[in-house]
Specification:
Blueprint (H helix, E strand, L loop, with lengths): L5 H16 L4 E2 L5 H9 L4 E2 L11 H6 L1 H12 L1 H9 L3 E4 L17 E5 L22 H8 L1 H10 L1 H5 L3 E5 L2 H11 L4 E2 L17 H7 L7 E7 L6 H6 L7 E7 L2 H13 L4 E4 L4 H9 L3 E4 L8 H9 L3 E4 L4 H4 L7 E3 L4 H11 L2 H18 L3 H12 L4
Parallel strand pairs: 1-2, 3-4, 4-5, 5-6, 7-8, 7-10, 8-9, 10-11, 11-12
Helix pairs in contact: 1-18, 10-13, 14-17
């Protein structure tokens, strides 16, 4: 929880509603100050170690499963979390860095539910090992060989869910559920993430125009994509698919400044102005998204993707690659567009549609209906979890 990525945002918006269904204690290995304040404000006790766990990186960690080993040690030393295991009637675990070392501490007769978000990047896919611009095609085969120990350890951490009838798994999408079965041999249900319609409101704040002006953004002249600068998130490909559209690209997220500069240079070479924004407040992020011609995404194998439903909530056209979890929330031509990767003409046509006032209005109306149809609200998420934990789902 050291970043406010999609998984963290989803958990934070669902926790207060989960706490209305259960008596909750929140245990973690690390936490941002802002997250701690928000959780405590909801009346939920926070259990965190004295020294926050910092996930290690680098090649050596990949070879020896160093991140997993250090997380296992951190959980074992986390006294308040260990005590909470005994206190709890049941445990709900959200997947993320270090999470899968936690089940080893849970007695076999203690009900445990895992919300599976995605397989750890790079362990079972190739694209995560590529450079953001797609180069480095030699790397995946070598890395998969070097990750043998880490991959076996991660796969072993899921075995309890396959073998123990008292433990269960819900994936965050049908696509993710298929991956869970393909990779780990586990058949799980689906527990969708959510969007808060009061947070992602159709009513613009009074200072949104000023926020965009301060960032030198002109309404309707850019598309937004959200994510870290990586090949998995398809940020360079977002540039490629805007060529000829007349739109600039705003990236909410990005990477190191040297990487952001390289991306801007790449965009300049194709006539696509690129602006990278990081550390935005929620209010400014909403202003940027609301002022865009479209919110776009070209991630490879996105498990669910919060960005499309956040765009739908705001009434901004979602235009996404026809892959992964995106296909479960966006219905092509009904509430946005699903477009094939690499079909630049189709992307230009879709982005032209997104700038048509009548189409935007129709997609926006149908977007809210889609959110309601799938039950993508924090209240419904908590109710669904309550059913699952009580053996009804």
């Amino acid at each position: 929880m050291t970043v406010n990525g999609g998984a963290a945002r989803d958990l934070m918006r669902n926790l207060p509603h989960i706490a209305e269904m259960f008596e909750v204690k929140f245990a973690c290995l690390n936490l941002l100050d802002s997250q701690r304040v928000e959780i405590l404000a909801s009346g939920i006790p926070v259990l965190e170690p004295v020294n926050q766990w910092q996930p290690g990186g680098g090649l050596l960690n990949e070879i020896v499963a160093g991140q997993e080993r250090s997380a296992a040690t951190a959980w074992r030393k986390h006294e308040s979390a260990v005590a909470a295991i005994e206190w709890a009637d049941a445990i709900h675990l959200t997947g993320g860095n270090g999470s899968m070392e936690f089940p080893a501490l849970v007695p076999a007769d203690k009900p445990l539910h895992l919300h599976f978000l995605e397989s750890k990047p790079g362990i079972h896919d190739d694209v995560s090992h590529l450079n953001p611009d797609g180069s480095g095609g030699w790397r995946p085969r070598l890395m998969h060989l070097l990750q043998t120990v880490q991959r076996r350890r991660i796969e072993k951490s899921f075995r309890g869910f396959a073998d123990n009838p008292g433990w269960s798994v819900s994936a965050n999408s049908g696509f993710s559920s298929d991956n869970l079965h393909r990779i780990y041999g586990i058949k799980g249900g689906v527990l969708y993430p959510s969007v808060d319609l009061s947070e992602f409101s159709r009513v613009a704040a009074h200072d949104e125009t000023a926020s965009r002006r301060e960032l030198k953004l002109t309404e309707g002249e850019y598309a937004v994509t959200v994510g870290r600068l990586s090949r998995f998130k398809g940020i360079y490909e977002a540039v490629d698919h805007l060529v000829g559209s007349g739109l600039g690209l705003v990236v909410i997220g990005g990477g190191k400044e040297s990487e952001n500069a390289a991306l801007r240079g790449y965009g300049e070479g194709f006539g696509v102005p690129v602006k990278v924004l990081s550390g935005l407040s929620t209010q400014v992020m909403l202003a940027v998204m609301r002022g865009s011609a479209a919110v776009i995404g070209l991630a490879h194998g996105e498990a669910f993707g919060l960005t499309p439903i956040e765009a739908m909530a705001l009434g901004v056209p979602p235009v996404f690659v026809n892959e992964g979890g995106y296909t479960e929330t966006v219905v092509d031509q009904l509430n946005g567009r699903l477009v094939e990767r690499g079909d630049l003409d189709a992307w230009n046509r879709a982005l032209e549609q997104a700038r048509d006032a009548g189409t935007r209005e129709r997609w926006a109306r149908n977007g809210l209906a889609r959110i309601e149809e799938l039950g993508l609200t924090p209240e419904n998420h908590a109710e669904r979890l309550h059913e699952i934990m009580n053996g009804e789902g």
